[in-house]
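Morning, I've got a small favour to ask if you have a moment. It would help a lot if you went through both lines with me. I owe you a coffee for this, so here goes:
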Amino acid sequence: MFTSICLFYVYKLTDGPPSNRHLDFLDILLTAKDDKGVGLSFDDIRAEVDTFLFEGHDTTASAISWAIYHLGKYQKEQDIVYSELSELLNNNKQVSWENLQTMPKLTAFIKESMRMIAPVPGVNRQLTSPMTIDNVTIPAGLVVDMGIYMLHHHPDVWPEHDVFKPERFLLEDIAERHPYSFLPFAAGSRNCIGQHFAMDEIKVVLARLIQRYKVFLVPDHKYEIQPELVMRAKYGIKITVEERN
């Protein structure tokens, strides 16, 4: 399928660069050139597409799935978010761009969900220079693993780490929290370039779901995390929904 898509664009490019005002993702990859006028190879393009498909699809799907799980598990928090959305949207079936910027309780709910169950449980970085931690020097060239899930549940960083409390992200002292204490999208120069889009996507999906349905977990189903490159549910996430009046 990928080869077919690329060939379609190659044929299209024989008539010159795309004429549409806004280039799509493949347009940009296929027309991009470096300072010497050299473009990306098919392998380079495929690597870029694979990255966007993985980072923009699998991880976001994990975040949405676990957020729905938390909606079903914590009915009181679900009701709080529903009240906010009802007042904000006022029976409007569409979520506008302006709405996305004014959903503090939904945003806090999503962040707490990603703190409890990080969509990506860990990342790693290769050191370009020596790093000293607690008087132990790690030489350059080594790969250091960082457990995001463990960080989000470290009791020194997050008191009552095993308690679901969205208000953690509404507190006035949130600015005093260390910027690297919450890393669902990693951090630094290699952080997720699509994190703002991902958050908006999650907000839209959850807002539309909560606005129309009340979510419940299926009793007696076993909900268990399965850490991989992306955090999955070992036995799936089963829910039932009840249409709101």
Residues 1-16 have pLDDT under 50 and may be disordered.
